[in-house]
Design goal:
Order of helices and strands: HHHH
Structural class: mainly alpha
Number of helices: 4
Shape: flat
Helix content: over 70%
Distance between the termini: 55 Å
Radius of gyration: 20 Å
Number of strands: 0
Largest sheet: none
Length: 108
């Protein structure tokens, strides 16, 4: 049988009391695509393709969620978090388009 050590309890207490911070990635594929698409003059095409992919994923996850019990199960929480993450990315794509439209390719 396993048992937490005192050091383990302290670590667990620190983890429990600390907020989860999302690290900023050094390389994100979507940023790379946006920058290169802007240079090539194909930004709107890339944004449209990405939006279409996001909508397909959101629809699929919404369908999956509709078959889950309406309770805070781990599966529902995972699915819904992913839906919200995808919706945030869709809003970010709108923001990218607005920035480029307002200020040209140097805006972001």
């Amino acid at each position: 049988m396993y048992k937490l050590t005192d050091a383990g309890r302290r670590s667990l207490g620190q983890w429990w009391a600390s907020p989860i911070e999302l690290p900023i990635g050094e390389r994100e594929e979507i940023i790379t695509k946006v920058v290169f698409a802007s240079e090539r003059g194909t930004l709107l095409e890339i944004l449209d393709v990405q939006r279409g992919g996001l909508l397909r994923q959101i629809r699929s996850l919404n369908k999956r969620a509709s078959h889950l019990p309406f309770a805070a199960t781990a599966e529902r929480l995972i699915v819904e978090k992913h839906i919200y993450d995808l919706e945030a990315q869709a809003r970010w794509l709108d923001r990218v388009e607005a920035l480029y439209s307002a200020g040209g390719k140097d805006a972001p």
